[in-house]
Amino acid sequence: MDPENKPKGPSPHYSLYQREVFKRGGTTGELPHFSVHPEELAETTKAKLNDRSYFYANSNAGLGWTDRANREAFYRWRIVPRTCVDTNVRDLTTTLFGHRIPAPILFAPIGINKLYSPLGELVPARIAGELGLPYCLSTASSQSIEDVARVNDEAASVRNESNSVHQYDGPNGGNAKSPRFFQLYMGHDDEVTLSLLNRAWNSGFDVMMLTTDTWQLGWRPTDINIANYTFYYPGTPGNEMGLSDPVFMRKYGEDLKRDSGKWIDHSVWHGKAHTWEKIRWLNKEWKRISNGRPFVIKGIQNAADALKALEVGCDGVVVTNHAGRQVDGAVASLDALPEVVEAVGDKMTILFDSGIRTGPDAFKALALGAHAVMVGRLWVWGMSHEGDAGCRHVMKSLLADLDITMTVAGYPSIHHDVWRNKDALRFNPSGTPPSTGDHAKL
């Protein structure tokens, strides 16, 4: 872990973050203020927040069996370490929709971040900009599209000015700002939808990601127990995206004054499903607005739907079960990933979401064919503890974990040695991970 004896490579030496933590503890006695062990972090987050805030991002559908299935699927796939491999230089870089990024990890979209920090989505947007990782903004954001873009750009500019070694390219080359994706919950007012698409494009969000598994919130008993629909409570955040949208306010602003749930009930979780024909329309409109930039479907769990997404012109899919929050007893996302890769893996970009907690988790999803993984609850837990500092600590820890896993397991390059390398894994059909404490219910 000698920082003076690290050969330069295409990626930052994320592993040195572990040394940095050790060094601070040994020289100044400064220790991290919270654990980044995922199970312990979940527990301390629960103690940190009130129930409404905690369960907004952590409740699951039904008995929580889908969430548990996600974690058990990671347990069944085991990494096969190699030895005497030169891993002194690691390459974690990948190219995603024309963006060359330093590691195959994205900030997944989670709404109403003001429940976790007063600055809300500005926190993860800033940290994503610092790290050069893609940030995906939710339609249920508690900050406007424009404010999030500004903060993300500011952080990316500071990163680029301070780091002349590791520069990452955008779709048009050069020293680019951090890539930004916009996650859309599509309502049934096309004028509002088009307003959101235009605002996103004008603010530098150049990949559109439509979530298709959450027109209607799943049955979540832990939310039922405390009537946890934050938009109906006076003074709570969640309407900022609607309040900042000129079309929505022109058409429904007066309604919103009388009904605080008007934005979310009308434009986000409205309970009226769309069909593939509507997806085809939305894709066409986004391509028109963005001059052909990518359109992605989030919510794919089988090969048939992945093939249908390809047929209607989508550029990518996110293999996800919404982290176990929609259909209880559903297939684990990691179990669905191989069939999706086999069906469309040479024709579409495949992202993976649902259950990523560690570097080895990311390694396994990449080895099974995902181009990159999305992380959500981890960064929410971090920002719940210490805002920017907590979010940064959790994400730098995850990057270090992935970097160190590649080092000690003998896989120097994501692209050449890990991605779609089933020889790097071995499937164990029996056994389940041990469960302790409330994290089993998350």
TrEMBL record:
The active site is at H322. Coiled coil: none annotated. The keyword Oxidoreductase applies. The keyword RNA-binding does not apply. Its cofactor is FMN. Residues 30-427 form the FMN hydroxy acid dehydrogenase domain. PROSITE patterns: FMN_HYDROXY_ACID_DH_2. FMN binds at P109, I110, G111, S138, Q183, T211, K298, D353, S354, G355, I356, R357, G376, R377. One of its GO terms (molecular function) is oxidoreductase activity. InterPro entries: Aldolase_TIM, Alpha-hydoxy_acid_DH_FMN, FMN-dep_DH, FMN_HAD. Gene3D superfamilies: Aldolase class I. Glyoxylate binds at Y56, Y185, R220, H322, R325. Keywords: Flavoprotein, FMN, Oxidoreductase. Belongs to the FMN-dependent alpha-hydroxy acid dehydrogenase family. PANTHER family: L-LACTATE DEHYDROGENASE (AFU_ORTHOLOGUE AFUA_4G07050), S -2-HYDROXY-ACID OXIDASE-RELATED. This is FMN hydroxy acid dehydrogenase domain-containing protein.
